[in-house]
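Structure ticket #2291
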Amino acid sequence: MKDVHSEWGCKVLEGAVDGIVDFKLEEDGKTTRDIMRIRSMRNVGFNREWHTLKIGDNFEITLET
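Resolution: structure written out below.
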């Protein structure tokens, strides 16, 4: 979002929502890892750590444990 909108625009957009979730694809040579984290969430306790996503054969997505 930061490459698309100004810093002011990002702050306005982030202030208008109840939560922000980040998704990222990490590549290390031939392996890839899909990860996500909750950056912010109003009125709820949450874990800010990055979590690995597991994509099943039927494209169902779960957190890897």
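Closing remark: The chain has one domain: 18-63.
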